[in-house]
Design a protein that fits this description.
Helix 2 packs parallel to helix 3 and helix 7 runs antiparallel to helix 8. By secondary structure, the chain is an alpha/beta fold. It has 11 helices and 11 strands. It is about 45% helix and about 15% strand. The protein has a 6-stranded parallel sheet with strand order 3-2-1-4-5-6, sandwiched between helices. The longest helix is centred in the C-terminal third of the chain and has 26 residues. The N terminus is likely disordered.
C-alpha cells in the first residue's frame, strides 16, 4: 500500500512539474519570434533545423536552401513543438524566407574536407555569403545575423561590407558564431580537470580558425590543478578541434553535429537577449575595440538590440598574452581578405 501511495505521489509531482514546464513555454509568455536558417538542407543545417524546432522561443521557423528544403521542412514540421515550419528553395523564394525574421542563422556553403585549405573554403563560401547578405539587407535589415559559414574570420567582414554598401549596417546585429570553440574548450577542460562539464566555463577569444582561437584556461571555472603542459595541449586541441573531426570522419564530413549544437546554443542566447532576459553573456566574433583589430571574439552581453556590451579580455596568463600577439597578424589578414573580396 505504501509503495502504491509513493508511486501515486511521484506521478502527481511529475504531472505538476510538466504542467509548470508547459506553462513556462506557453506562447503567451514569450513574444513571437521568426528564425530563418539559410543552408537548412546541408550537413549543419538539418540538425540545426531540428534543434531550433525544439526551442520554445521560436514561433516561426523558415528553412531555406538552394534545393531539398521542402523535405527537411516537412520532416521537422511533424515535431510537436510551438513553431510553424516553412521550407523555401531557390533564389526566387529567398525574400519570403527572410521577411520578418528576427534572427537569421547562416550555415550555408561547403564544409571543410581533408586536404582543403581555408583559402579553398574562402573561394567557394565568400560568394555564397555575399549573395545571401545582399538579400538580408533588402528583406530583413534589422535581424540579428548569426554567421556560421566558414571562414568566419572573413565572412563576418564580408557581411559588414555588404550591409555598409546597402546602408543597413548595424555592428550590434552581426555575429560570428564561435560557440563551438567554447563548447570544445569546456569539454576538453572538464575531462582533464575531472570536474562535471555542466558547471564548467571557459572564455574563448580571438577568431574562429587554428591559432586565432585562444581559449583563456587561466579564467576557467571551476579552478583546477591543471599543469602548464596540459594547458598548452588543451589549447592546441581546442584550436585543432575541427581538423580532429574532419580526419575522424575520413572524408565523409566535418563537425556538423557539434556545430549545429553550438549554433543552436548561440541562437537561443540571441533570442533570450531580444526578449529582455538579463545577463546573457556569450563569446562571439563582433566589431570590437577590445584590441587594435576591427573584429574580435570576446565575451559579449546580449540584449534587445543585439550587442549590449562588448566585454574586455580580463587578466591573461603569459602563455595567453603570447598567444594573443601570435594570432593578431593571421586574424588581421583574414579580416582584410574579406573586406577586399566584398569591395571588388
Amino acid at each position: 500500500m505504501n509503495s502504491m501511495l509513493r508511486s501515486a505521489r511521484t506521478l502527481a509531482t511529475t504531472a505538476s512539474r510538466s504542467s509548470i514546464l508547459r506553462r513556462g513555454y506557453s506562447s503567451e509568455s514569450v513574444p513571437d519570434r521568426k528564425v530563418a536558417i539559410l543552408g537548412a538542407a546541408g550537413g549543419i543545417g538539418q540538425p540545426l533545423s531540428l534543434l531550433m524546432k525544439l526551442n520554445p522561443l521560436v514561433s516561426n521557423l523558415a528553412l531555406y536552401d538552394i534545393a531539398n528544403t521542402p523535405g527537411v521542412a516537412a520532416d521537422v514540421s511533424h515535431i510537436n513543438t510551438r513553431s510553424e515550419v516553412t521550407g523555401y528553395f531557390g533564389d526566387d523564394q529567398l525574400g519570403k524566407a527572410l521577411e520578418g525574421a528576427d534572427v537569421v542563422i547562416i550555415p550555408a556553403g561547403v564544409p571543410r574536407k581533408p586536404g582543403m585549405t581555408r583559402d579553398d573554403l574562402f573561394n567557394i563560401n565568400a560568394g555564397i555569403v555575399k549573395g545571401l547578405c545582399e538579400a538580408i539587407a533588402k528583406y530583413c535589415p534589422h535581424a540579428l545575423i548569426n554567421m556560421i559559414s566558414n571562414p568566419v574570420n572573413s565572412t563576418v567582414p564580408i557581411a559588414a561590407e555588404v550591409f555598409k554598401k546597402a546602408g543597413t549596417y548595424d555592428e550590434k546585429r552581426l555575429f560570428g558564431v564561435t560557440t563551438l570553440d567554447v563548447v570544445r574548450a569546456k569539454t576538453f577542460y572538464a575531462g582533464k580537470a575531472r570536474v562535471p562539464v555542466a558547471g564548467v566555463n571557459v572564455p574563448v577569444v580571438g577568431g574562429h580558425a587554428g591559432v586565432t582561437i585562444l581559449p583563456l584556461f587561466s579564467q576557467a571555472t571551476p579552478k583546477a590543478n591543471v599543469s602548464e603542459e596540459e594547458i598548452v595541449a588543451l589549447t592546441k586541441r581546442t584550436q585543432d578541434g575541427g581538423t580532429e573531426v574532419v580526419e575522424a570522419k575520413a572524408g565523409k564530413g566535418s563537425a556538423t553535429l557539434s556545430m549545429a549544437y553550438a549554433g543552436a546554443l548561440f541562437a537561443d542566447a540571441c533570442l533570450k537577449g531580444l526578449n529582455g532576459v538579463p545577463d546573457v553573456v556569450e563569446c562571439t566574433f563582433v566589431q570590437s575595440n577590445v584590441t587594435d583589430l576591427p573584429f574580435f571574439a570576446s565575451k559579449v552581453r546580449l540584449g534587445k538590440n543585439g550587442v549590449d556590451e562588448v566585454l574586455g579580455l580580463g587578466p591573461l596568463s603569459d602563455f595567453e598574452k603570447e598567444g594573443l600577439e601570435k594570432l593578431k597578424p593571421e586574424l588581421l589578414s583574414s579580416i582584410e581578405k574579406g573586406i577586399k573580396f566584398a569591395n571588388k
